From TrEMBL:
The lineage of its organism: Bacteria, Bacillati, Bacillota, Erysipelotrichia, Erysipelotrichales. It comes from the Bacteria. Keywords: DNA-binding, Transcription, Transcription regulation. It holds the Pfam family GntR. Gene3D superfamilies: Winged helix-like DNA-binding domain superfamily/Winged helix DNA-binding domain. It comes from Grylomicrobium aquisgranensis. This is GntR family transcriptional regulator. One of its GO terms (molecular function) is DNA-binding transcription factor activity. SMART domains: HTH_GNTR. The keyword Transcription regulation applies. Residues 7-75 form the HTH gntR-type domain.
């Protein structure tokens, strides 16, 4: 993973894991890698990996079961909320960028329709 220097690494990893959960790559109830394995997978410090899990747990995205490890939450609403929030953020960025280019709402919608067919 290539990291952006304008944002803390642990938040970028949190965002990537949320994306994997929202897209279905990581399933509800799935066991997450150990802190050490997460650090290796994302090429980050183990303390940073620990912080990633702290954030995910505080947001109820993951839960740690003592002696068993960390697991993705089984809460289907949580997954739906993550997915919807990520989609909203993407749409907000798109609209903001196109408004800066002076596109009208109709032009934006037309562009999306045309690009959807090509994608």
């Amino acid at each position: 993973m290539k990291y952006d220097t304008s944002m803390p690494i642990y938040l970028q990893v949190v965002h990537q894991i949320e994306k994997e959960i929202a897209s279905g790559k990581r399933k509800p109830g799935e066991k997450m890698p150990s802190t050490r394995d997460l650090a290796i997978a994302f090429q980050i410090n183990p303390n940073t990996a620990s912080r990633v899990y702290q954030v995910l747990e505080s947001e109820h995205i993951c839960m740690t079961r003592r002696g068993l490890g960390t697991f993705v939450s089984e809460d289907a609403d949580m997954v739906k909320n993550i997915r919807n929030q990520m989609a909203k953020e993407s749409v907000d960025r798109l609209i903001s960028s196109l408004k800066e280019l002076d596109y009208s709402e109709e032009e934006m919608i037309q562009m999306i329709r045309e690009n959807w067919k090509d994608a």
